[in-house]
Design brief:
Layout lengths: L6 H5 L4 H23 L4 H9 L4 H34 L6 E5 L7 H8 L5 E7 L7 E8 L5 E11 L3 H4 L4 E4 L5 H4 L3 E5 H6 L4 H4 L16 E6 L13 E6 L9 E6 L4 H15 L7 E3 H7 L2 H35 L1 H9 L4 H35 L10 H27 L3 H7 L1
Parallel strand pairs: 4-8, 6-7
Antiparallel strand pairs: 1-9, 1-10, 2-9, 3-4, 5-7, 6-8
Length: 430
């Protein structure tokens, strides 16, 4: 069972009061109480502030900060890794734009010839449908053993440039560009199609499409198989795809995909727009960035990634402020003790360890609680994706490393300044 953690809730006004209350509980209130308590203590008594059983609530609150920080950092790392998976799946759409028109279908071939000369354009394909709005068929299918089943099949079509434009990986079969020369009517399918009909990809080549799929197309043969690629969110498994090679001479060519070289896409699009306005002065120029369209269909990942980055940063900053305040007051009240220890021969690293030891204890406890909590939450969140990363052990240790380094850097400067003071001056100040 998956948990549908809606990122929009954490941006909403309903969550804001809770977030403010959490900030007050874990930062402002402890800081005020600690400073008030320390101001009433002598230097020797300050140590008791951190070890006395009656004051364990201080360690609890600081540990709670570490729990939240570790959990958020782990969540951020996991969400970013899932975002990396989305970007990898959509990499074929990067630097790919699409323009379409419904009133000048027969003229797109002329526009294709003109666009080929635009600097920054590396490839063009014409088709009768947009990539992100492919034809969806609810098809009756048959497995190799004759068993019937129903499934959804995506129908995609394009001219000789489509295969190169989409950077598809061909598993077996004829070349897409030469299909009309070898077959009168042929289609490509994807790996999922082959898996659904339970037929090895090599044995599908040359088979009639009608043997495995009931459709109006009774003459096409399967001429090639490509690796799966994705149109929609990674929440869903890859669908079966049927790709039809069309001729550039067909009448209804309403969509054009243009591959840009990525050097200056803005300038290339500007030149394409100007060319469009010259060719079709009465038609409005409309285009879509296919990569951005694909990423937007995975908004659950992008929103969660942005959300966790924001809250992780806030949590780290609040923890740093709290630790700085604690170390500032504690060190000031232990100046005499530090001076006496130095006069008695204590090394700098020994004093540092004495002061840092409680903080390391809080980190370890926070890590022990935060890791299982973050693992459980992220596992539940990831269950909604058909294609997902795992919560890695590396993210555990990276979270621990980040929290430890940030904590040490926060308090070390204050501690180091106090330790390097002449012990005689320290005793005079007391």
């Amino acid at each position: 069972m998956s948990a549908d953690f809606s990122p929009s809730f954490f941006y909403s006004s309903s969550f804001f009061p809770f977030f403010v209350l959490l900030i007050l509980l874990l930062t402002v209130i402890p800081a005020l109480l600690i400073s008030n308590r320390i101001n009433r203590l002598s230097g020797g008594d300050v140590r008791q502030l951190f070890v006395n059983k009656k004051n364990h609530w201080i360690g609890v609150l600081v540990t709670a900060q570490f729990v939240i920080g570790v959990a958020l950092i782990m969540g951020m790392i996991t969400a970013n890794r899932q975002m990396g998976l989305v970007k990898q799946a959509g990499e074929r759409y990067r630097n790919l734009i699409e323009i379409w028109n419904t009133s000048t279908e027969t003229d797109l071939r002329l526009f294709k010839q003109k666009v080929q000369s635009v600097p920054g354009v590396s490839g063009i394909s014409l088709g009768n449908m947009r990539l992100m709005n492919v034809w969806i068929m609810h098809a009756d299918m048959r497995k190799e053993n004759g068993e019937k089943f129903q499934t959804t099949v995506f129908g995609l079509s394009g001219d000789e440039g489509l295969f190169r434009i989409l950077q598809l990986q061909q598993l077996v079969g004829s070349e897409w560009e030469t299909l009309p020369e070898r077959y009168g009517s042929a289609v490509f399918v994807n790996r999922t199609f082959a898996n659904l009909v339970e037929k090895p990809v090599e044995e599908l080549i040359g088979e009639p499409l009608g043997r495995y799929m009931d459709s109006l197309d009774s003459v096409s043969v399967i001429a090639g198989v490509v690796e799966d690629f994705y149109f929609n969110s990674l929440e869903k498994k890859a669908m079966a795809v049927k790709m039809t090679r069309i001729s550039s001479l067909e009448d209804r060519l309403t969509a054009m995909q243009i591959r840009l070289d990525g050097n200056d896409n803005g300038l290339a699009i500007k030149n394409i727009r100007q060319l469009w306005e010259q060719t079709y002065p009465d038609e409005f120029f409309t285009y879509a960035d296919v990569y951005n369209t694909f990423i937007s269909r995975n908004s659950k990942v992008t929103e969660m990634s942005d959300l966790l980055q924001m809250y992780s940063l806030i949590s780290i900053l609040l923890t740093c402020f709290g630790l700085f305040g604690i170390s500032f007051y504690a060190v000031r009240r232990r100046t005499k003790e530090i001076g006496i220890r130095k006069i008695n021969g204590a090394k700098t690293y020994q004093i540092l360890w004495l002061l840092l030891k409680p903080i390391f204890g809080w980190i370890i406890i926070g890590f022990a609680i935060g890791v299982p909590l973050a693992w459980w939450l992220m596992e539940r969140w990831l269950q909604q994706f058909a294609y997902r990363v795992d919560v890695s052990i590396g993210s555990f240790f990276l979270a621990l490393l980040l929290v430890s380094v940030i904590t040490i850097l926060t308090v070390l400067w204050q501690l180091w300044r106090t330790i390097k003071v002449n012990p005689v001056e320290s005793l005079k100040s007391e």
